[in-house]
Amino acid sequence: DINVSTDIALCRRCDIAHAFSELLQRRDLSNELDGKPKPKGVSERTTARGVAYAASHRSIPMALGALAVSLFWNGIVSVFVMLNLASTLNLLDVPMPDWFPAPLMNGDTMGWGMTLFLWVFLTPFILIGATMIGAFFMALGGRTEIRINPDQGRIFTGVGPIGRTRKFSPHQVRQVTLQGKSWRDSDGDRQQKQEIILEMADGAELKLGSGLKEARRTYLAALLQRTLCG
After folding, report:
1. Between 60-91 and 112-141, two packed helices, what is the crossing angle to 10 degrees?
2. Helices (H), the chain
């Protein structure tokens, strides 16, 4: 049942209301699996308990770009980190190697107040640098893997065994969609990002695949749509 004026579409069989405008934007991805070659970097296999899908984040251009930015950023930050580390070791009376920088600022030895302030000040810059390093390794050998069995689904995103795992109930997934998001960065330039959305019956959403190449992301979304909503 559809009410265009209130933007509501009600499915009587499952007794769930949807936004009608969102339904119009949803895309049936089944044609991505029919007669089209599977993109390189995507795998699917059947396990003893269910199915497993994986898509590689590997992209040499992105890895080189992330490496260049990471080396530039962390090279600058490391100068201040080494200076503050030298000050910390000096205040703790710990012997320092000869190649360590002198713990001086404006010609004077730094005290505990300035040293602690610099650690707090540098923490966000260190975390940003660590994120850049993580982006490099993701572009070099990262993957998104989804395992689905009758009772539980698991989404893993990371490199090797290191990464983030999220669990969900396959029976609670009501729709799998590809959605785009656009915004403007600090310079006013328009940015776009597309990701796979698992819409749950309780209104929650699981988002994945934003770091994948478009062909891999679309094919993975089609596999999930067929498995979870087919």
Report:
1. 160
2. 20-25, 60-91, 112-141, 214-229
- List Cα–Cα distances, 64 to 33, 70, 132, in angstroms: 32, 10, 12
What pLDDT digit, counting tens, does each position of 120-145 carry? 999 999 999 999 999 999 999 999 99
Q: Which residues of 50-74 are buried (b: 16+ CB within 10 A; e: fewer)?
A: bbbbbbbbbbeebbeebbeebeebb
Strand partners, 143: 56, 158
Q: How far apart are CA 160 and CA 56, in angstroms?
A: 11
- pLDDT tier at 26, thresholds 50, 70, 90: low
| Residue carrying the six token digits 């749950």 | 200
Query: Residue 21, class by beta-carbon neighbours within 10 Å (0-12 exposed, 13-18 middle, 19+ buried)?
Result: exposed
Residue 77: what residue type? V
Q: For residues 52 and 220, what is the distance between their CA atoms, to the nearest angstrom? A: 11
